[in-house]
Amino acid sequence: MVTGAPATMLDRREELTPMLAQYVDVARQYDDAIVLFRVGDFYKAFCEAAEEVARVCELTRIEREDSTGTYTACGIPVDNAPKYLKRLLDAEYRVAVADQVEDPEAASGLVDRAVTQVLTPGTVVEEELLAAGSNTYVACVASDAGGTEASTRTGSGATREDDTDPTYGVAHVDVSTGECAVTAGDPAAVDEELSRIGPAELLCGPGVDRAVVAGADCMVTERDADEFAPEAARAVLDRYGDSERFDAAERVAAGALLSYAEYTQGDDGPLAYVRRVRRYDPRRSLRLDATALRGLELFENHVGSGRTLFDTIDETRSALGRRRLRAWLRRPLVDADAIRARHDAVAAFAERTLVREDVREALSAAYDLERLAGRIARGRANARDLRSLHDTLVAVPEIREAISGVGALAGVRGELDALDDLRGLIDDAVVEEPPQEITEGGVIRAGYDDELDEIRTTAREGREWIADLQASERERTDIDTLEVGYTQVHGYYIEVTNGQLEKVPDDYTRRQTLKNSERFYTPELKRREDEILGAEERADALEYELFCDLRDRVADESDRIGALADALARVDALAALATVAVDRDYVRPELVDDAETTEGDAGAGDRVGDEVGLGLKRSRHPVVEETANEFVPNDAAFPRGTVALITGPNMSGKSTYMRQVALAVVLAQAGSFVPAESARIPVVDRVFTRVGASDDIAGGESTFMREMRELTDVLHDATGDSLVLLDEVGRGTSTTDGRAIARAAVEFLHDETGATTLFATHYHELTDLASECERVVNRHFAATERDGEVTFLHRIREGAASSSYGVEVAELAGVPESVVARAHGLVAADRDGAGESPPTPAGDDAQRTLDEVATNGRDPDGEGDAELPGVRGDAVADLLAALRDLQLAETTPLEALNHLHDLQRRAEDAADAGERP
Questions:
Q1: Percent of the chain with pLDDT over 90
Q2: Measured between alpha carbons, how far is 819 from 471 in angstroms, rounded to an integer?
Q3: Chain segment 786-844, per-residue pLDDT in tens
C-alpha cells in the first residue's frame, strides 16, 4: 500500500512548483495516509498516491508536465467525494483531506491549505459514509505497565483468576455519536470483547502481543508509542473526567484512543459531545463470544444473505432505537430485576395498542439525535440539521402524552425532556426550509435580528427600485425594447438594441458592447447597485455569524440532547419489542432463580417441566418460523445442570431446536418476549455454542482443530449458570477417537461444570450415559420410514433414536442409486459383523423397526437372520411380512392381541406341518 509523501517528489522539493511543494509538505506530516489536496472543484493526489487512488476508485490517471518534469495526477470531484472516499476506506486506507483554509480572493499568491480531517474506517462521521442505525467503532487495546494493577482490582472484567496473565485495557468509541466505554481483562477477555464490539479499526499499544488481537477482523492502526505513555494518556483522559477512577490499563487504552479520535477530527481540544467515558464490567451482561454470535446468527447469517435474529425483531422506527436494540441484543442483561423491569415496559406497550401506535408514529419523525449532536458540537452542522433537531423535539411532547399514566413507563417518561427552550430558539432563528449552504444567506428568519432586518430592507428596497426602473426608463427614453438586467460579472445594466442607440440619453454610460446591443448604467443605477450588493454581502456575512452563534448555543446543550436521545432510543426499542410480541404471538417469559419454585404459581399447569430450570412449551425458532412454510413447535424442559443428549436423523431439526432454546434465553435476557406458548427461563451468565463446521486455512487450523479450540473454551469457562450447545463433537477425527472425546466431554460437563447442556450427537453409544449419570437425559427427533421413504416429524421426544438415516438423506440429496444401494449393504454388513444392538426404539420409530425386520430378514435385536425354532425360512418370511403390514398406530389393544394370537397360531401350524430344517 503506497501512501504518504510521494517518493518521486521528496528529493527535489525545491524544484517543484509552489502548489506541489505545498502538497509534499502536507504529505510528509501525514505519511500514513493518502493526502487529497483541494484544487478547484477536485481533491487531487499525485504520483504514487495518485496511482493508488486511480486503482481503488477506478478513475483515470493523468500525466502532467511542467517546468519541473512529468508527474501522475488523479482527481476526485468534490461534489461526488463520498462515493470515492468510501471505496478508499473499504480498502482500509487512511485519507487526509487538505482543504483551502484561506479565501482565494483574499490570498496573495498561493492559497493556504491544511488537513481539516483524517478519515479512517473507524472514525468517519459523514452521514454518507455511515450505516444508519449501526455503530461504527474504533477500539484500542493497551497493556498496563506491570500487568497487575487492573487484575487485582474488583470488577476489572477479567474472566479467569490467573495472576500470571497480563492485564489489558479495551476501550472503544463511536466518533459519530460520542459513545465511549472502557474495560479491562486478560487475553481471553480481550478477544471476547473485540468480537462483541466489532470495531472497524483497532489501535494496538506497544506492549500488546499481536496474538491477543489476532481475531479482530478490521484494520489495525499503528500509533507512536508516546501516545500510550501513562502520563500522556492520563492528561487526555482528564479532559473527559476524573482519570483516577480507571485502572492503569484502562486509562492508557482510553486516553490513547481519545487522543487518536481528536487527531482524526482535527480538534485541538476534547470532543465536546463525548459526554463521559463509561467504565463497564463484561460480567454484568450475558456474555456472547464470537463463536456464539456466529453460531446463533444474531447479526450475521451463515449464508451471508439470509435473515438474522436482529433482522427478525427490528421493528424500530428510528436510527436511535435501531442502535439501542442492537446493543441490547449484543449485551443482554443478567440482573433479574433489570430484566423484569424491561419486560414490564414491553408488556405495557403490548397491552395498549393505541398507545404503542401513537408512540411509534411520533418516533417516525425522530432524527438521529446522537449524530446530530455530534455534528453540532464539531461545528459541522448546517441549518437543515438544526431544523431536524427541532422537528425531533416537536415529537417529544406527543410521546410524553401518549405514555402518561403508564406506570411501567414512568421512569423513561421522566427523562423525555422536550427541550422547549432549545426548540423555540431554533424555530425563531431558522427558516422552515433552509438552503444546504449556510454562507449564502436565506437561513435566518425575519424578525430574529434587527440589524439583519435593516440590511435586508435596504437590499429589498434597492431591488424594488430596479424592478420599476425598466418601465420608467422606457417611458423616459421612448425605447420600447429597453431592458434592465444583471450579471455576476458586470452587475446591473440597461440594455438597448443597436437600432435604438440614437435614443440613448446623455446620462447613460456604456458598460458592455454585445453583437446586437449595448449595455449601459446610470449614476443612480450604479449607486443602487452598490447599496444592493453591499447589503446582500453584509447580510450573508451577518447571517453566517448569527447561525454560528446559534449553533454554538445549541452545542452547549449537548448533555441534555444526549440524555433525550438515550430516552427516545429506549422508548423505540421497547415499543419495537412489544410490536414483535403482539404481531408474532410471543409470550412474556417467567424468570426463575435457584431459590424460587413454581408451586402454586398461576398458570403453572400450562408450563413444561416441574423442576426449577428451563421450561418452554411449544417453542419456535424466531427466524426459521418467519421463512418456513410450516414450523413444528417443540417443548423444552431442562432443570439446571441437565445434559440432554439429542439424537435423531440428519435434517430432523436438532440444530434448529438447540438454537431456538438458546435464542429464547438471549431474547428473554435482552428484555424481549419469546416465541412460545409459555416460558420459564433461569438467568444464565453465558451462552456457549459449538455448532457447525468451519476451518481457518490461513491460520493453519483444520475443522477439527478449530472444533477442539472451541470445545476447550467451553470446558474451561462454562459455569453452573451457563447454557451450552454442542453439536456433533468429535466428528472431525476417527470414530473411536471422536466418540471417546464426546463421551469425556459429556462426563466433564455433568460432573465438573454443571452447565445446562444440549448435546447433539450421532454417537448412539453415548445414550447409555443416561443410566449412569444422574442429570443426563436422552431426547430424540422422531422420523418414520415406509417403503424406503423417510418422513421427518421434527418433533422432540424422550428416549434415544434408533437411526440417523444418513444413507436415506444421501439418497434425498441425489446421490447415485448405486452408491446408495452399496451404502445400505455396507451398513447391514457392519451391523451383522459388529453384532451391536441399536438403541430401543421409541414412539414412531417402532414402526420402522418392524419394517426393517420384514424387509431385511433381521430380528429386532440385530442378531442376524431371523429364525423361529422348527420353522423354515420361507415360513419366517411370510410371518415377517404379516408383521410388516400391521398398522400399529391404528390398532386397538384388543385387535393387537388378536393379531398376535393369529401369528402364534400360524407359526405353530407351520411347525406341525413339518416345515423344519
A1: 59
A2: 99
A3: 766 777 788 999 998 877 778 877 887 888 988 888 888 888 887 776 544 444 444 34
In a domain, 654, yes or no: yes
On whether both 31 and 114 belong to a single domain, the answer is yes
C-alpha cell, 52: 493508488
For the residues of 100-157, what is the DSSP string, one character each? E-S-TTT-SSSPPEEEEEEE-TTT---GGGS-TTS---EEEEEE-SSS-TGGGSTT--
In a domain, 432, yes or no: no
Each residue's pLDDT tens digit, 357-389 = 999 999 999 999 999 999 999 899 999 999 999
Give 855-888 pLDDT, tens digit per residue. 444 444 444 444 444 445 566 667 676 776 676 6
Q: Position 140: which residue type? A: C
Q: Tell me, what CATH number does 564's domain have?
A: 1.10.1420.10
3-state DSSP of 698-764: CCCECHHHHHHHHHHHHHHHCCCCEEEEEECCCCCCCHHHHHHHHHHHHHHHHHHHCCEEEEECCCH
Calculate the CA 592 to chain-centre distance.
Answer: 30
Domain that holds residue 890: 846-917
652 labelled ligand-binding: yes
518/511 Cα distance (integer angstroms): 8
- Walk across the sheet containing 138-143 and list its strands: 219-221, 201-204, 138-143, 168-173, 180-185, 278-279
Q: Is 685 left (phi over 0), alpha (psi -120 to 50) or beta?
A: alpha
In a domain, 1, yes or no: no
Same-domain check for residues 235 and 365: no
Mean pLDDT computed over every residue of the chain: 85
Is residue 650 a known part of a binding site?
Answer: yes
Order of strands across the sheet that contains 113-119: 62-66, 69-77, 42-46, 34-39, 95-100, 113-119
Tell me if the pTM is above 0.70. Answer: yes
Interatomic CA distance for residues 415 and 567, integer angstroms: 6
Q: What own/partner pairs with CB < 8 Å and gap ≥ 24 does 901-908 have?
A: 903/879, 906/878, 906/879, 906/882, 907/868, 907/871, 907/875, 907/879
Rounded to an integer, the average pLDDT of 628-645 is 93
Q: Is 135 annotated as a binding residue?
A: no
Closest CA to 254 of 271, 279, 272, 275: 279
Contact of 359 with 399, CB cutoff 8 Å: yes
Please identify which residue in the block is written with the cell numbers 476534547: 270
Considering the domain architecture, whether residues 484 and 563 belong to the same structural domain is answered as no
Question: C-alpha cell of 267?
Answer: 480538534
Cβ 116 vs Cβ 266: under 8 Å: yes
Q: Is 86 annotated as belonging to a binding site?
A: no
649 is in an annotated binding site: yes
Same domain, 486 and 568: no
Report whether 653 belongs to an annotated binding site: yes
With cell 462454562, the residue in question is 718
With a CB cutoff of 8 Å and minimum separation 6, the contacts of 552 are: 379
In the chain, the amino acid numbered 638 is F
Q: Which helix (H) or strand (E) holds 533?
A: helix 523-555
Each residue's pLDDT tens digit, 490-510: 899 999 999 999 999 999 999
The C-alpha atoms of residue 246 and residue 169 are separated, in whole angstroms, by 10
What are the grid coordinates assigned to 491, written together?
Answer: 452587475
Q: 325 and 278 share a domain? A: no
Report the alpha-carbon distance of residue 336 to residue 334 in Å, rounded: 6
| Tens digits of residue pLDDT in 531-555 | 999 999 999 999 999 999 999 999 9
pLDDT tens for each residue of 285-322 = 999 988 899 999 999 987 655 899 999 999 999 999 99
Which H/E stretch holds residue 612? none
Is residue 501 located within the same domain as residue 538? yes
- Asked if 640 and 546 sit in the same domain, the reply is no
At residue 694, the pLDDT reads 53
**In whole angstroms, what is the distance from residue 192 CA to residue 180 CA?**
18
